[in-house]
Amino acid sequence: MEMIVMQLALFVLSLFLGVELITKVPPTLHTPLMSGTNAISGITLVGALIAAGAGDSASGLVHGLGFIAVVMATVNVIGGYLVTNRMLAMFKRKN
Amino acid sequence: MNTNLVDLIYLISAVFFVLGIKGLTKPKTAVRGNMLSAIGMLIAVVITLLDKSIVSYEYIIAGVLVGGVVGGLVATKIQMTSMPQMIAMLNGCGGGASLGLAAASYLLTSGSGGYESGALGIMAVGFVMITVLIGSVTLTGSLVAFAKLQELISGQSIGFAGIKFLNAALFISAITLLGMLCFDPTNTALFWALIAVSCTLGITIVLPIGGADMPVVIALLNSYSGIAAAAAGFIMGNTVLIVSGSLVGASGLILTQIMCVAMNRSLTNVLFGVMAEGSEAIDADEIYAGKVKSAQAEEIAMILETARRVVIVPGFGMAMAQAQHAVRELSDVLQENGTEVEFAIHPVAGRMPGHMNVLLAEAEVPYDQLVEMDRINPTFEQTDVAIVIGANDVTNPMAREDKGSPIYGMPILHVDKAQTVVVIKRSLSPGFAGLPNPLFAMDNTLMVYGDGKKAVVDITAALVSA
Known about the structure:
The complex is a heterodimer. Chain A is mostly helical. Chain A has helices at residues 2-22, 30-41, 44-52, 60-93. In chain A, helix 2 (30-41) packs antiparallel against helix 4. The longest helix of chain A is centred in the C-terminal third of the chain and has 34 residues, at 60-93. Chain A is flat, with a radius of gyration of 18 Å. The model of chain A has no long low-confidence stretch (mean pLDDT 89). Chain B folds into three domains: 1-77; 81-272, no CATH class; 284-465, TPP-binding domain (Rossmann fold). In chain B, helix 12 crosses helix 18 (452-465). Chain B starts with a helix and ends with a helix. Mean pLDDT of chain B is 89; it is low at 275-280. By secondary structure, chain B is of the alpha/beta class. Chain B has a six-stranded parallel beta sheet. The interface between A and B is large, with 86 and 119 residues.
C-alpha cells in the first residue's frame, strides 16, 4: 500500500513538473514537442518488453499481445525521435 | 539484478527526459534536448533487457525489428505537410502499446493464480482496467483522426444528432464494466466487453469532430497516450513509466488548453457540442454583393513594390496547396526589395499545434520571422500589406465586432487594420465555421482567386519583372 501511495505522489508531482516545463515551450516548437513527447510515451516499451519476455509459462495470447505492444512502442520511440530530430534540424538550419 | 539498482537507473532515464523537454523550450537547444531524451530512452530499454525478469527474447527481437523498420521508414519518408497524420499515428501507437501491455499483464496474472483479494488486489485490477480504457480510446480515436487527416474518410463532422447520448452511454458502460471487473477479476468476458466498449467509444468521440477542431483532438489524444503510459506504470510498479507518462499527459493537456483558448471554446464544447448557433442566419450574398474586388497578380505586385512592411498570414490552405516554398520565395524577393516581412501565426492555423511553423521552417523561413498572434496584432496598423493565404475564420472581423455571431469572442488576427489586405483563396466559400467573412468585402481588401501556390508564384514573378 505504501508503494502505491508513493507512486501516486510521483504521478502528481510529475504532472506539476510537466505543466511548469511545457508552458515554457514556444508555440513555434509545439509540433516537435508533440512528436518528442510521443517518443517519450514510447517508454511503455519498457513494460512491453517485460510482458513479451514473460517466458514459456505464458499463453500464446499473452505473447501475441506483448509482441504487438513491443511493435507499437518501438514505432513510437524510433519514429518519434527520428521525426522530431528531422523537424528540429529544420528550425536550427538558418540560425 | 538488484531491483533498487534498476529503479535508480530508471531515475536517471527520467532525469534525461526532463532535461530533454527543457531543451525544447528554445529552438537553439531543442536538437540537443531531443538527443538527451533519446539517450534516456536507450538507458531505460537496455537496463530492462538486462533485468532478470525477461526470460525469452524471440518476441522482443521480432517486435523491435518490425517496429523499428516501420517507425524509421515512416519518420524519414513522411512529408512535412503530412505531419498531423504522423502525430495521429504516433498517438495511436502509444495508446495501442499501453492497451497491449495491460491486456498481456491481465491475462498473465489471471492465468497464474489471479489477483489477490482485498484492497491491493482491487487496485491492481483497477489500474489494468483504467489503462485498457484509456489505451483503447486513444488507439481507435487516433485511427479515426488519422483517417480524417489522410482524407480516407470525410474530414468534416460525421455523426447524428444523438451521438453525444451514445457517447455518454458508452462511457457509463465502460465505467460500470471497470467497476465490475475490480470485484470479479477472473471474468474474462467482462474484460473483452470493456475493450470492445472502449474501442467503440474512441471512434464515436472523434467521428463528430472535424476540420478546424482537429488541433484540439490531436493535442487531447497526445495527452491520453501519456496518461495511458502512466497508468501502465502503475500496473508494472514501474517508476520511469509513471514519471514520463505524466510528463507527456501534462504536455498534451496544456496544448489542448492553448488550442481551446485560441478558439474561444471550452473543451466540452469541442468534444460534445457543435459550433454555437448564431442568433440569425447570416446571408453571405448580402455581405459580399457588389463589394468584393478581385485583382490580378500584376496589380498586387505593384502594391507590394512600394510596401515598407508586409505581413503574411498562412492557414490550412497553404498546407493544402503545398505553397510554403513559394511563400518563402515571395518573402525573399520582398526583403531584397527592402520590405520588412513577418509571418502572423494564429495558434489554431492548420490541423495541429505548430503546423504552420513546421511548414515554414521546412521552407527555411527563419523562426524569428514567425510572430505569435498577441505580438503581431498591434503591428497591423503600421502594416502596408497583409497577405492572407488559405486562412479564413482566424481573420474574420465578426469575431471582434458582431456580438450575435457564433464565433464572437474568438481571438483573431486583425488583418483588416492593415492598409491593404490581399486574400489568396480559391473562392468565396466559407471556412470551417460556415460563416461569410466581411473581411473579403472591405474597401481595402483585394481578392486573388486561384490555387495558393500558383497565385504566390505569379505575384513573385510579377514582382521580379517589375
